[in-house]
Amino acid sequence: MAKAKTVFFCKECGYESSKWLGQCPGCKQWDTFVEEPVVKKSISASGYRNNTEPILLSSVKSETESRISSGIGELDRVLGGGIVPGSLVLVGGDPGIGKSTLLLQTCREIVNQGKKVIYITGEESKGQIKMRAERLGAFSGELLLLCETNLDLIEDVINKHKPEIVVIDSIQTMYKEDISSAPGSVSQVREATGALMHMAKGTGITIFIIGHVTKEGMVAGPRVLEHMVDTVLYFEGDNFASYRVLRAVKNRFGSTNEIGVFEMRSSGLAEVKNPSEYMLTGRPVGEPGSVVTASIEGTRPILVEIQALTSSTSFNMPRRTAAGTDYNRVNLLMAVLEKRLGIQLGDCDAYVNVAGGMRITEPALDLAIVSAILSSFRNKAINGNTIIFGEVGLTGEVRAVNMADQRVAEAAKMGFETCILPLANKGKIKAPEGIKLVGVKNIGEVLQYIKEYS
Question: How far, in Å, are 19, 100, 196, 246, 322 from residue 167 at the CA level?
Fold first, then answer.
């Protein structure tokens, strides 16, 4: 009897090789190859065939996709305005972060609109889903629930009931009978996602799939999984914080810069309509090293607090720590302070933190980080009604940033009275009522302002 042919796959990126390799040539990870049997599948096995004749681009009619509201404003924002029929959406996140809760709440809102939804779980029993549903609130519509992991049977159920939305929880538990490898393996995950993709495109059903993540924060299984789906959403958050951030890292139907902010409560996830107010709650006023800045996430301005602490070091090499922002960027800004202003930080430990657990790396935070370090080093507090943003160059100049008018408008809405911003931006925007704009060209002017108004 002929021996079954096998190949080796990389668990991280899906790279295929005829022999085992210690390091993956694709993603450069070590010891990630696993041996699995070759899957021989007919090209026409999907059952969904389109016209194979090419047509002229000019003859194609432009169509705006009709979207379905999820009933959750923050989710609609991240998806680009709503759910696109026939799309395949991957939702990833750490265990216990709230992926299943978010999608079950989405199912509740959609069935309450009179639409048919099937929630398919391979990890929990029907009783567990029922307990979570009772905690989230009443379902006025009928939600179909299926506990199954055999994808062939799942396809039959979907074709029979023809729902508008399907949720798969999770893709790592699904398997196809014609593949001998175990559920969660590279072959099973790839083939299962491929079958769901053909189903979504061929029937117009929107399918949400939940994917586990590795300890590195990537979706478990081959990275090709992210290339096959239309949208990839990551649910982020600190286990010690109550807020959660939903971020799109891939979206064929909208922007990848939008985020949705939620708060985890006993009754489920609640939308945070004003993230700036939420992030600034409890901030110290009149304390050295605390500065408020404005960041842009997609089209939404969010005010966050930058905290810095400098103290004399007890070691030969001072310690540098950055939480929530780029560590190398903080070291660069401290070098600019030493070179351009003569501030001697070589004998000081320095700690920089974006309060609230947010991670922001855009250059517009540079001026706030510099101001917070100067405030802590000189032990002088910056006026609590002042907001600071701008990019800092290696020569100490303050460069313009994008969407400055939205940042200033958000600061005025939150009650701030003074805004320190790049001089190049000041001349292009009109100050809202109640806020004073201070334009600066270099970090020396910022230092002078701190001396005068702190």
Answer: 37, 9, 11, 17, 38
